[in-house]
Design goal:
Elements (H helix, E strand, L loop, with lengths): L50 E5 L5 E5 L11 E5 L4 E9 L1 H9 L12 E4 L2 H12 L1 H14 L5 E7 L5 E7 L7 H11 L2 E6 L2 H8 L10 H4 L9 H6 L6 H4 L14 H8 L9 E2 L4 E8 L4 E6 L6 E5 H12 L8 H4 L27 H20 L11
Helix pairs in contact: 3-4
Length: about 400
């Protein structure tokens, strides 16, 4: 899905809205929210909620009160109140769903915290805004060079101009506290505008810049994920993932947020599993857990001193042995439990769509080729060995 300007241009080439998927008119909006209350009518006598959600650069969203009762719809460019001057943004949400979003994000509706929408942006407002946005990339290159010259341990990741071009916000990341007073003086002297420095985390930096993850899709933090929960290495251990930093870390250098997506399902499945550090006491010897399979519910145990011989048990069988051990009883051996486990290797699926077999490349084709070559050679030899028939000269 996309906006109306993401149609096809000349020669079948995509025209696009030139916003790289971050336009504000439809579902290609960055961090968009589907307005599932838009087609519902309000009860009689109820007044519509007069707050709107306005998006700025790189998914930054602020909620404003529509005090002028303007007729606003998604995609409208509006001039909004700022700390000084005004800012330009796009309306991304209106109506009753804005109240739900404000309640979820714990945003107050008190008069002292209210920011207002002045008007719909005029053409002059848009021209000033677009001209300021075009300066940001060149400013970012110069700003990074200034920081390098001053030997400051910081990285300037993004620059955002206010809509009236009266202020520029520099977003930076740093591992420690940075004294950038001299840097601000250089910025003010070079760029001739008010400067604001704002430090952000590594996850926020990745969300602002965007990118493609190892899964092949756009980063979750730049498309739909708004709350950043802490991710621990224990999440990878519970899911039995290899603790490889190169595979577990995202583009921000932190652990991937998707490690938390299925963690609750793994924790629920592990409730029926006995602890791996619990040893099984048998008459044959003491067995130690070597491996678990969460999906099949199997556990592999090996006797102490016989580490190469593993015996597979189900979780019920392991719990049964542990229950007997708590009563100071021992089972004979693990083999009598492992023999009861029958492995079903029958294929349960059928080829109903005419797909090729996945094992079609496993069988070598040299035998069939050699047979065909032998047949060709035999036929060729038979033709050469045949003697020509003598001609009958006495034939009339």
């Amino acid at each position: 899905m996309g906006c109306t300007s993401c149609s096809t241009g000349k020669d079948g080439q995509p025209k696009g809205c030139k916003n790289n998927g971050t336009c504000g008119t439809d579902s290609c909006n960055k961090l968009t929210v589907f307005d599932w209350l838009s087609n519902m009518t309000l009860p009689t006598g109820a007044t519509p909620f007069n707050w709107v959600e306005v998006r700025f650069k790189n998914g930054r969203k602020v909620y404003y009160k529509n005090t002028e009762n303007l007729t606003l719809s998604i995609g409208d460019v509006v001039a909004t109140q700022a700390a000084s001057g005004h800012d330009i943004g796009m309306v991304t949400l209106s109506g009753e769903l804005v109240k739900v979003q404000m309640k979820r994000k714990k945003i107050s509706e008190k008069p002292e915290d209210v920011f207002k929408i002045y008007r719909k942006a005029s053409q002059r407002d848009i021209d000033i805004w677009v001209e300021a946005r075009e300066k940001e990339e060149l400013m970012k290159v110069k700003a990074r060079q200034f920081a390098i010259d001053l030997r400051l341990k910081m990285k300037i990741s993004d620059i955002e101009f206010q809509g009236d071009a009266s202020k520029a916000t520099f977003y930076y990341t740093a591992d420690e506290r940075v004294d950038f007073r001299e840097l601000i003086k250089l910025f003010a002297r070079e760029f001739r505008t008010r400067i604001e420095m704002k430090q952000i985390g590594l996850r926020q930096e990745a969300a602002r810049l965007g990118g493609i993850g190892s899964c092949g899709r756009e980063l979750c933090c730049s498309t739909w994920l708004t709350d950043f929960r802490s991710v621990n290495t224990s999440a990878a251990r519970y899911q039995q993932l290899s603790l490889n930093p190169l595979k577990l870390a995202g583009q921000c250098g932190k652990l991937k947020c998707c490690l938390n997506y299925e963690l609750d399902a793994y924790l629920d499945a592990l409730k029926s599993f006995p602890k791996t550090e619990v040893k099984l006491r048998t008459e044959k010897g003491t067995a130690v857990c070597q491996k678990t399979d969460i999906f099949k519910g199997h556990m592999w145990y090996a006797y102490e001193g016989e580490w190469m011989n593993w015996h597979v048990l189900t979780t019920d069988q392991a719990n049964e042995i542990i229950a007997k051990n708590t009563k100071k009883e021992k089972v004979a051996s693990l083999e009598e439990y492992a023999s009861e486990l029958i492995v079903d290797t029958k294929v349960d699926f059928e080829n109903v769509v005419g797909q090729d077999s996945l094992t079609r490349f496993d069988k070598p084709k040299n035998q069939s080729r050699s047979k065909n070559n032998k047949r060709k050679n035999n036929n060729r030899n038979n033709r050469n060995n045949k003697k020509p028939r003598p001609q009958n000269n006495n034939a009339k």
